[in-house]
Amino acid sequence: MASFSAKKIVNATKWSALSQIVLKIISPVTNMILAHLLAPEIFGIVASITLVISFTDLFTEAGFQKYIIQHELRGDEKLEEIASVAFWTNLWISLLFLAGIIFLRDPIATWIGAPGKGIALAVACVSLPITSFSSIQAAIFQRNLRFKSLFWVRLISAAIPLAITVPLALMGLGYWALIIGKVAGNLYQAVAMTVISKWKPRLFYRFSTLKAMFSYSIWSLFESITVWLATNVDILIVGTILTSYYLGLYKTSMSTVNEVLRIVSSAILPVVFATISRLQGEPKRFNDVVYRAQSMMTTLVLPMGVGLFLYRELVTGVALGAQWAQAASFIGLWSLVMCITIAYDYICDEIYRAQGKPKLSFITHLISIIVLIPAVIWAAKWGFEVLIYVRSATLLVLLLANCFFLKRYTGISILRFFTNTLPQIGCTLGMAAIALLLQQVSSNMIWQFVSIIICAGSYLGLMWVIPAGRRQIIDLYAMARGKQKAE
Prior knowledge:
- The protein is an all-alpha fold.
- Helix content is 84%, strand content 0%.
- α14 runs parallel beside α17.
- The two termini are 22 Å apart.
């Protein structure tokens, strides 16, 4: 079985991390500017429209990306065959969905809580066939750990909405500014990915190949649907029960936190999945990569999440502006729960997929949804304040489900995840205590920024004096430089 060298894995992780850091800087900067220009209601409308696009994308992609990345294939010819079948299937499904959405645009817009926005919905969904042009190329790049190539395409694609959306928002186009910018970014990515990819679409199709792919992809699709529901069904519920204003607060609060904290998981997990998918026949190396990656994520994401919680008012004021002050409580609470989820839960899905067991991911997310839907419906009826506490608590249901399934069916111990990260937990608590003391000195904004720097330095110092923590810092430094320590 083919496997990747340590040097190639670290190099891929470096470019994946660089890509995510740059993208996560551009995206929040764009949102910060737009949040000061546009009202929460505008973001609520776009959130409703984005729901339709993201859900439809699940079916147009149909799990083929994960199939291409995860499966061992014999030779380039087999990869060419599978990629072509996946490409044409994606394209035709996306065109069918686009036609259906255009025809039913007004009823769909009303159902998702954006009445009268049918034309906007139809225009936004033009992205569906556009993204189908780049999804297969992206999967092949990830399969081969070519994250450097993906970096430049995604960098420019992320910058295009910034260059287009902000001027249009200044011209008073409201939600149209967000929609046009997103479509333009997707169009560039599709063209650029097609140009730089060695693989090109060709006129080839074989139903027997589709059937073989579908036997795996059907469970991957079911898993993707449950993941989507676990992360988006609450937005649909909130949009129908509460106003667009509160939906804007709700969705933007989560997005603000996720864009920061997911820098870590988005940089590491794609490389982990591609790597451990090649190590299915080497359980010791498989487990070593998983435990090491999880520990590295925790080293970064735990102090980030706790820091966002402690400085929630500052984050809200700087990132979004005074008109979003009501979102501060949710931003803080969501940061606290989300950092725990990323540290101990996100890697579980990658393990299930890499071992060819997407059914387990489907089951765990289904359990989460069964709790989530009634909880959010009940909480939303009591108002925004109750909603944010209930929604944050439901995020931990998935972690509890994975505690049961992970060891039982994969051989990976979630208890090992916790014991591996005891230094990170202790140092994060120490940093939090220092932050609380520093906040008593002054509420001045400049002092708060100074105290954040002191807290970051304190965390690194505490980690450095602990041997296990020092190893994590050295590993992260080596990864950032694209070098691998001798083992």
